[in-house]
Design brief:
It is a single chain. This protein is α+β, with helices and mostly antiparallel strands. It folds into 2 domains: about 45 residues, no CATH class; about 120 residues, Cytidine Deaminase, domain 2, CATH 3.40.140.10. Helix 4 packs antiparallel against helix 5 and helix 6 crosses helix 7. Strands 2-1-3-4-5 form a 5-stranded mixed beta sheet, with helices on both faces. The radius of gyration is 17 Å and the shape is elongated. The chain is about 45% helix and about 20% strand.
Length: about 180
């Protein structure tokens, strides 16, 4: 059955993005097995990230490696805040908002709530583009600038705002607004 599911969805990553409702429609799966599959993928992602808590994020590539397993399977846009201590080590990863296929609405107030609550020294924001193309929109750039300004007021450095796209040739595509001087 596993081979059939992988073939039907076009690969393991696509299977991991499938909803329980989509999986339940497959012959021999049903709602219970579908829920188990969704849970298994979610646990796999959490396990991969749990080992990375406390790890130092020194570059956008470090962040992409850290966030990639969690974000590449998402069918909708989400914004995550990676909360960092004074040495750049990961304290926690908080989901700020979950949007639609092509947008996620958020405000700096919500984005910094978790950083304030956990006494984070700095924060790295990241969101995904389910289309696979990490090119920032004008709104992405504007929001990134607003987040940076809010962080300056709060005394919480915004180290970067990453946009993660889809995988290509085994590597996850991304766009660092800080590296490109856009955020």
């Amino acid at each position: 059955m596993g081979e059939e599911l992988i073939t039907r969805f076009g690969g393991l990553q696509a299977l991991g993005r499938a909803s329980a409702a989509e999986l339940a429609q497959c012959k021999g799966v049903g709602q219970t097995k579908a829920a188990r599959l969704v849970a298994a993928f979610a646990l796999g992602v959490r396990l991969a990230q749990e080992d990375l808590l406390g790890r130092r994020i020194a570059s956008p590539k470090d962040a992409v490696e850290f966030l990639g397993p969690r974000m590449r399977l998402l069918p909708v846009e989400i914004l995550l805040a990676v909360l960092l201590d004074a040495k750049g080590r990961v304290l926690a990863v908080e989901e700020i908002t979950r949007g639609t296929l092509n947008e996620s609405l958020y405000h700096p107030r919500e984005a910094f709530r978790a950083a304030i609550a956990r006494n984070a020294h700095s924060v790295l924001f990241a969101h995904n583009h389910p289309s696979g193309d990490p090119t920032p929109s004008a709104e992405d750039v504007a929001i990134s600038r607003a987040m940076k300004q809010a962080g300056e007021i709060l005394g919480i450095e915004v180290v970067d705002h990453l946009i993660l796209g889809g995988p290509r040739k085994g590597k996850l595509l991304y766009h660092s607004l800080r590296e490109r001087g856009e955020g």
